[in-house]
Amino acid sequence: MWLLQPFNEGATRLFLGVLLACLALVTVLHLAVPAGHPLHVSAYTVTLLGKYLSYALLAVAVDLVWGYLGILSLGHGAFFALGGYAMGMYLMRQIGDRGTYGDPILPDFMVFLNWDSLPWYWLGFDMPWFAFLMVMLAPGALALVFGFLAFRSRVTGVYLSIITQAMTFALMLAFFRNEMGFGGNNGLTDFRELLGFDLRTDVTRLGLFVATGLALALGYVLCRAIVTSKLGRVSVACRDAEARTRFLGYRVERFQLFVFVVSAMLAGVAGALYVPQVGIINPSEFSPIFSIEIVLWVALGGRGTLYGAVIGALLVNYAKTVFTGAMPDAWLFALGGMFVLVTVFLPKGVAGLLSYRLKRKEHQSDDSSTPQEATS
Amino acid sequence: MRMIRSFVPGLLLLFLLVGFVPVAQAQDDPGQALLESLATESYAEKSEAIEAIITSGDERSRRWLEELLDGKLQRHKDSGRFVIVVENRGRSWPVIDALSFDDAGEMSRRDLDRIGINNALRGQLQSALAVLDLYTDDVDDRREAARELLGSMDATLVEPLREVIADEGDAEVRRLLEQGLAIHRLSEGDIDAIAELEGSLNSRVRAALNSAARSDDPLIADAASAALDDIEQKRRLNSGLETLYFGLSLGSVLVLAAIGLAITFGVMGVINMAHGELIMLGAYTTWAMQQLLPGQPGLALVLSIPAGFLVAALAGIAIERGVIQFLKGRPLETLLATFGVSLILQQLVRTVISPQNRTVVSPDWMSGSLMINEGLSLTLNRLFVLGFALVVFAGLMLVMRRTRLGLEVRAVTQNRAMARAMGIRATRVDIMTFALGSGVAGLAGVALSQLTNVGPNLGQNYIIDSFMVVVFGGVGNLWGTLVAGLSLGVINQVLEPWAGAVLAKIIVLVFIILFIQKRPRGLFPQKGRAAEG
């Protein structure tokens, strides 16, 4: 079965092994080592790591379209945020009458706005299965419509990047409006419990961390399966020579659309895992700068490798945590500098650096999975 | 408060020593006699006294009448001296002399007699004050006064106004006064007055016609409603023109922001995400110029035009040499790298100058507005920016079409290898083109500093819009950028009234996204070989 195909690869097994080992290690260090011990991992750190892992899943989703399809999406933050909002809506409904206004059905902000009933698009979000379905379907639907229109008329390259950016910008403006019914500026927050587990307990946080790690492992395997399948080979062909692939008889836009939608759904799942750990979702996740930051994670880690995206997401976000804590002013300098240095000096990212070392050892000369930019 | 209280005894002493001296002098002043006539019990006599003051032509009469209206013109019981109360709180009030307007210390409230007025006198005073301004030398003041008078005329004013009209040199003032008289006549049931009021956009005229339209006389009512319909039509036209103006103004801003991008992105094919920050640098140059030349905002602004161009162009050259030249033929990487540059520039401004917005002063000749008619006035700063955008566009067209640089740029973009074979130094052309596009961004910044806040986020707000304009207009086409920018501005303004500002912006974005699906190469696609770049 094609989904199990990746398990035959050494690199994937290595990646999964490292990931699962890390999950187990953090769990043990959190539960078994007493607080105060230098090796103890606090609940705060667990949540922070969980956040990084959800970002890593998002980066994998971006790498799938950018690295293997050649589509630089500057709007993946929108899919991430939509998934997050779907989860947020479920969590809002779970609050029930424990909100400030004590309304059993309406979330606080709707009571505040004097709404007397739930808007139709909030219906059903009290049921977890529906909400979790929407976590994937909402971003997927947006990607389907947007991608269908864009790929059909062969909007590619820079143009596509710019209109994806415009898409997330438009969504950000829309979600800032109170009339939209998504909490406007403040977004959705004040969550209590998820599937009956209190979000404020350490055990739930650990559970969310492990769930995110497993989701990342699954997402990684799925992406690996896609890129190693025949579908993936055609995608790479589209990336490197779109016109030639078309002339060979492949319907390029269908391959692009499929991969784009899968990637958007993965981004949605990442958003859904992110929200309960961070405790808030607001329109700033839609901001173009966030989407472009995701691309940096991938570029820094090395595009077209998937594991590079994970490394990049973890590295950059760890750096962000350190910098914004120690020298908040310097963070944008560092981020901007990374953009410039990575693109100019490190076009294949950290992963490229690693595989270059490996190759020199093994005297290999050809690696088909490194991207070659089509000059269009 | 405590300090003021401790001054009170001293001031009182001062008053006692010198207080009575000016009164002696004042006996010769004709003003004293005029004011004396006010100090009577009879309101009819007071009314005559007011008339006397108006016709006296005394330049202090305006102040007297105003203070009288406020109840602050008072008379000292014992000395008969007239004073103006500055503040009537507490027991003793600080006063100034009513004749010389000099400080007259403080007086006990018990010693003062207020010159009372009733409602009839109040009305008389109000219109008298309005008429008084009609005698000033300044035309603008006279117009303002005439406008004030509209709709508040009564029978007593008709005769004096006819005299004023006969003497008035300014046609606008005459027109306004005649309109005012017509409103008065209309209120007395004169149907011919409606003809005179037709087509006026003044709100008072409309109010008068509205009440006439409800009149019992069907003839007057019909004529008034007909006139109202006419006015309504004119108003609609006006608001249409206003929307168009605001749209063009917004469009000109978009054009300014995008036109530099049209050069770097459209002609050179370089995605410069730091374009917005180059605009910001231009705006900050204006601010810095005004700090260097305090008190001369106009001169500073004029000097900022070349300075802003230069600063942004130099920054552009630095970006081109430092980053972009290494990323030739890799547009997506260029996009990311220049985005990094934009973050660095933003943070640089935040760290070096301030994260807060800076205010850039508008020079006098740019503030104010140009009045087309009573319902429509165009703000001058927007008009200037609109003109500036067109001038910059024309200049850029000239450079691209008529200069050697423009020729070389077009040659290099069409066929780099061939151009180099013909002896064009392509690298130099790259630098010059990028400097030109960046410099124009700086010019946009100078213009924007007159319309919006100058802050570190200034550029970010325009970068997406600018790309939209360039892509919508058709990459590599300056005319396309102009048409796209202006039309997007107008569309946005047309949508705004019924959709709201944010929704209008969203609709425009969605419209462009859909438009690009339909015509991926924009409004005016490039033809020929360059199209397949």
Order of helices and strands of chain B: HHHHHEEEEEHHHHHHHHHHEEHHHHHHH
Q: What is the number of helices of chain A? A: 14
Number of strands of chain A: 4
Strand order of the largest sheet of chain B: 4-3-2-1-5
Spans of chain B of at least 5 consecutive residues whose pLDDT stays below 50 are 11-26, 529-533
Q: CATH architecture of the largest domain in chain B, please? A: Orthogonal Bundle
What can be said about the biggest beta sheet of chain B?
A: 5 strands, antiparallel
Rg of Cα set of chain B:
33 Å
Number of β-strand runs of chain B: 7
CATH topology of the largest domain in chain B: ABC transporter involved in vitamin B12 uptake, BtuC
Strand content of chain A: under 5%
Helix percentage range of chain A: 55-70%
Task: Quote the average pLDDT of chain B.
Answer: 80
Radius of gyration of chain A (Å):
21 Å
Protein name (chain B): Urea ABC transporter permease subunit UrtB
Family (chain B): Belongs to the binding-protein-dependent transport system permease family. LivHM subfamily.
Signal peptide (chain B): 1-26
Main location (chain B): membrane
Task: Provide a descriptive summary of the structure in words.
The complex is a heterodimer of chains A (376) and B (533). Chain A is mainly α and 376 residues long. Chain A is 68% helix and 2% strand. Chain A is built from 14 helices and four strands. In chain A, the strands form two sheets. In chain A, strands 1-4 form a two-stranded antiparallel sheet. A two-stranded antiparallel ribbon of chain A has the order 2-3. In chain A, a hairpin with a 2-residue loop joins strand 2 (193-194) and strand 3. In chain A, helix 2 runs antiparallel to helix 10 (252-278), helix 2 crosses helix 11 (288-301) and helix 2 (43-69) packs across helix 12. Chain A is globular. Chain A starts with 9 loop residues before the first helix and ends in a 14-residue tail after the last helix. Residues 364-376 of chain A have low confidence and may be disordered. Chain B is an alpha+beta fold. Chain B has three domains: 2-120, no CATH class; 134-215, no CATH class; 238-362 and 379-532, ABC transporter involved in vitamin B12 uptake, BtuC (Orthogonal Bundle). Chain B is 68% helix and 6% strand. Chain B is built from 22 helices and seven strands. In chain B, strand 6 and strand 7 (376-379) form a beta hairpin. The radius of gyration of chain B is 33 Å and the shape is elongated. The A-B interface holds A 72, 146, 149-150, 152-155, 157-159, 161-163, 165-167, 169-170, 173-174, 176-177, 288-289, 292, 295-296, 299, 329, 332-333, 335-340, 342-344, 347, 373, 375-376 and B 271, 323, 326-327, 329-337, 339-344, 346-348, 350-351, 460, 464, 467-468, 471, 502-503, 505-506, 509-510, 512-514, 516-518, 520, 533.
